[in-house]
Write a structure and sequence with these properties.
By secondary structure, the protein is an alpha+beta fold. It is about 35% helix and about 20% strand. A 4-stranded antiparallel sheet has the order 2-10-7-9.
């Protein structure tokens, strides 16, 4: 346990605040401007307050507006959220024009200005020590996580006199602003690498970099809208997925027959296991099915797995099964495409599905209230560019080499982002235990990695 620096003291947040209270419950706030603006729950994120994340409410009396309006220097904490990690997060209210309400799922903290600098408090409440205090007190029910006002009031708060608080904030803000700039540069690099990967795959898969005339068009098909697909070089052709592979759906769980003694228990892949460009196999569930069903759906190396449903951007995403788990099958929300007659390398099929096929499936799928899906009959019509068979081995190697280089750069950027996040936490913890000096060189290192 760290010893506090001389002149520091510890108290509970409730004792150094003028008030700590939940916001107003607004029934059906509107996205359309008009009335009094009210923040969305998502306005508090990353230690900052997004004033543009707002809705609007009508019919609020002036007295209520005054009671629930936020002022510059107030703190807002997330009281309730679908993500546990976001509960208890804090942001400082900046300057803004006009009344702005806070909703009931945010907690407003007004501090005693003679005791606590609100900038110091906002940073302190984002420290790891506060997170460690709140984490066991967060309760989760029905998919929503929340923290009680009493637990917020009891947060232990260590602080020096107000002049020392302001000195610490000045040092912290310098370091943190540099980290912010570095992280922004790293995030831009991540986006550029993602765009580069996408553009390279599209060009390579459609032969866009090859010389010569381009003739083969995608023939239209009843029942789907293909949009604009490019012409292919001579010798290449557009085919539908069903032209080159046998595509089947997976098993639907029959909860009433899970105890059937004739059934066998086998591992099976769900949507969560089938990611874009890789399979996530850290957890694979099991299911009991009839032996004939297990045999019919047993995966073989080279099978391409494609998602049937979930979020709209998950449609048709997937990758290749390599036989990692014996006797594994797949659920009904995952399609299996098994290439016939060696018409196309499974890697080319997967890359095409993840780039060209994904927006096509999104356009041709259907959307319900919460989920998107694409039918088996439609996924069989997904267009695929087919290079000549004697070109495919070389093309696969070329794509693999280029993607490996992009992946190495992406990994470096991701590692730098993780280092920046760890350094941010270290800076905050050091600042509130009197150990702030000595971390500037680490900030320099993150800036260098970001190219800022």
């Amino acid at each position: 346990m760290n010893t506090l620096p001389a002149g520091w003291r510890t108290d509970n947040l409730g004792n150094i605040a003028i008030s700590i209270r939940n916001g107003i419950f607004a029934r059906r706030p509107s996205d359309e401007p008009g009335g009094i603006p009210i923040l969305r729950i998502s306005a508090v994120k990353g230690g900052r307050l997004d004033l543009t994340a707002r809705k609007y409410v009508d019919g609020i009396e002036a007295e209520t507006v005054a009671k629930f309006s936020i002022d510059p220097g107030d703190l807002l904490l997330t009281r309730y959220n679908g993500s546990r990690d976001l509960v208890g997060r804090c942001a400082l209210v900046p300057k803004h024009a006009g009344p702005l309400l806070h909703p009931d799922k945010l907690i407003r903290v007004v501090l005693r200005p003679d005791v606590i600098d609100s900038r110091f408090a906002a940073l302190y409440l984002e420290s790891q020590s506060v997170r460690s205090f709140l984490e066991p007190r967060i309760k989760t029910t029905a998919g929503q996580s929340g923290i009680a006002g009493g637990d917020v009031r009891s947060i232990p708060f260590s602080f020096p006199d107000i002049s020392e608080q302001r000195r610490i904030v000045d040092i912290l803000e310098d370091h943190l602003s540099r980290l912010d700039a570095a992280e922004a540069g790293l995030i831009r690099s991540t986006r550029r690498l993602s765009a580069l990967r996408e553009a390279f795959l599209r060009e390579a898969l459609t032969g866009a970099n090859l010389p010569g005339p381009r003739e083969h068009r995608l023939p239209p098909e009843v029942g789907v809208d293909d949009g604009a697909f490019p012409l292919l070089p001579n010798g290449w052709q557009w085919l539908r997925l069903a032209d080159v592979a046998d595509v089947v759906g997976g098993v639907t769980k029959d909860s009433k027959r899970q105890d059937d003694p004739a059934f066998v228990e086998v591992p099976y892949l769900r949507v969560a296991n089938v990611q874009r460009g890789h399979l996530r196999l850290d957890y694979v569930a099991t299911i009991r099915v009839a032996p004939s069903k297990a045999a019919a759906l047993r995966l073989k190396p080279g099978d391409v797995l494609l998602n049937e449903g979930g979020d709209r951007d998950k449609l048709a995403r997937g990758w290749i099964w390599e036989g990692q788990i014996d006797d594994c099958i797949h659920q009904n929300h995952v399609f299996r495409a098994r290439v016939r007659d060696d018409r196309i390398d499974p890697r080319l099929l997967s890359w095409a599905a993840n780039t060209l096929g994904a927006p096509w499936a999104e356009h041709n799928g259907k959307q319900t209230t919460n989920l998107a899906s694409i039918s088996l009959s439609k996924i069989r019509l997904m267009p695929l560019p087919i290079p000549p068979r004697d070109m495919q081995t070389g093309l696969v190697q070329q794509i693999s080499d280029q993607l490996a280089g992009i992946d190495r750069l992406t990994k470096q950027v991701t590692s730098s982002l993780a280092r920046s996040e760890a350094l941010r936490k270290s800076l905050l913890d050091a600042a509130f235990t009197g150990r702030l000096t000595g971390l500037a060189c680490d900030v320099d290192m993150v800036e260098e990695l970001a190219g800022v």
